[in-house]
Amino acid sequence: MNEVTRIVLSVSLGFILTFLCMKFLPLGGKLLGHDRGRLYAPGSEVNIGKPTGVGIYFVIIFVLVSLIFGFTGAGLIYAMIFVLFSMLFGYLDDRARNPWGEYIKGGLDFIVAAGGAVFYVISFDTDVTIGITGYSFEISAPIYMLLAILLITTSINATNATDGVDGLSGTVTVLTLTAFMLTSAINGTLDIYKAVPGLAMISCLLAYLIFNFNPSKVLMGDAGSRAIGYFIAFYSMYLKLPFAYLILGLPFLLDGGLSIVKITIGRLTHKKIIILKNLTTPVHDHLKKRMGFSVKKTWATISLAALAVDVIYLVLVLIF
Q1: How many domains does the chain have?
Q2: Which among 131, 136, 164, 261 counts the fewest CB atoms within 10 Å?
Q3: CA 189, 192, 198: angle at the middle one, nearest 5?
Q4: What is the helix (H) or strand (E) element at residue 270, kind and residue range?
Q5: Strand ranges inside the chain, DSSP E
Q6: Please, are residues 200 and 62 in contact by the beta-carbon 8 Å criterion?
Q7: How far apart are CA 283 and CA 239, in angstroms?
Q8: Mean per-residue pLDDT over the chain, rounded
Q9: 8 near 20, Cβ under 8 Å?
Q10: Residue 135, Cβ density class (10 Å: 0-12 exposed, 13-18 middle, ≥19 buried)
Q11: Could you list the residue range(s) of the whole structural domain that residue 276 is in?
């Protein structure tokens, strides 16, 4: 199979199969839950009752397409297994009668992150590239594993927290993955097999977004957002660009990540230290509640900010 055929088939199948699943929701009555709304989240009541957890469809499609057209060995299989674990844990939470507590979710996130980090180091080299300069160096395996656990955990939770506005998480993910791929291509480290998983996820999300743009018909739920968060972290490492997440992941870090930091500090200090008192987090809730933005304006504001970050980063990569 030549490279063009491999790309065309992976993108086409990812998009078409996801579109059909979003359109017809096969076995939806048995598989999917319904949104319960989010406490203290302004405007979330409009989503109550909508099918949620549809991430189970496009994540499975993405995994199959990636393995069929981008298979490079056992390492990719391990990575996709942990993507599925992230999806499964999120899916079970979506379907639970009572949402799982933060400690349960945190424990599962750590298990997935630790397992993913160990298997990544076993399967792949621990060299990294600084995207802007193209300079590469190797990190010792123990340090790489610790950094990988931090990256995966952060990405899962920040991406999950960002998924609170129609179309937002999917759009920002598409922009972020595209920027990672372009950076790798400019640095000369992107090949057809590394490109396939990124393109497969992008094609699946584009089909999903047709049904998730405001007013949304379906919601990815934790089944989608947590799996996407894991994949973004893995993909940054797969392309040897984990440190680029600090920039290309800024939309997730600033929107959803700040919420996690704020809550964590408050709980650790028994609410004696409350940071960002005047900022409602996630930031998309601040835009809606404090600034009166509509859902579409909130989506556009954060998406354009993400696009600006990606463009500026890519310009710097080209210059240096």
Answers
A1: 1
A2: 136
A3: 85
A4: none
A5: 33-34, 51-52, 127-129, 136-138
A6: yes
A7: 29
A8: 93
A9: no
A10: exposed
A11: 3-319
Distance from the first to the final alpha carbon of the chain:
36
Do 207 and 65 contact (CB within 8 A), yes or no?
no
Residue 98: the pLDDT is 79
Element (H, E) at 283: helix 283-289
When pLDDT is averaged across residues 170-194 and rounded to a whole number, the result is: 97
Give the separation between CA 199 and CA 10, rounded to whole angstroms. 7
From the CA atom positions of the chain, what is the Rg in Å? 19
Which residue's entry shows tokens 């469809």?
Answer: 57
Q: How far apart are CA 140 and CA 63, in angstroms?
A: 29
Residue range 51-80: average pLDDT?
Answer: 97
**Statement: residue 190 has pLDDT above 80:** yes
**305 and 249 Cβ atoms separated by less than 8 Å:** no
Does residue 97 or residue 78 have the better pLDDT?
A: 78
Residue with tokens 């989503």: 47
* Average pLDDT score over residue span 103-107: 88
Tell me the three state secondary structure of residue 42: coil
**pLDDT computed for residue 276 by the predictor:** 79
In contact, 158 and 258? CB cutoff 8 Å = no
| Burial class of residue 32 in the structure, from the number of CB atoms within 10 Å of its CB (0-12 exposed, 13-18 middle, 19+ buried) | buried
Region 94-114 average pLDDT: 88
Q: Other CB atoms closer than 10 Å to residue 22's CB: what's the count?
A: 21
272 and 141 Cβ atoms separated by less than 8 Å: no
Count of Cβ atoms closer than 10 Å to residue 306 Cβ: 26
Closest CA to 204 of 108, 289, 83, 306: 83
Query: What is the tens place of the pLDDT at every residue in 198-213?
Result: 999 999 999 999 999 9
Q: What is the pLDDT of residue 42?
A: 55
What percent of the chain has a predicted confidence (pLDDT) above 90? 79
Residues 127 and 238 sit within 8 Å (Cβ to Cβ): no
For residue 46, pLDDT over 90 is answered with no
Q: Residue 161: which of 261, 58, 64, 311 has the closest Cα? A: 261
Mean pLDDT value across residues 177-199: 97
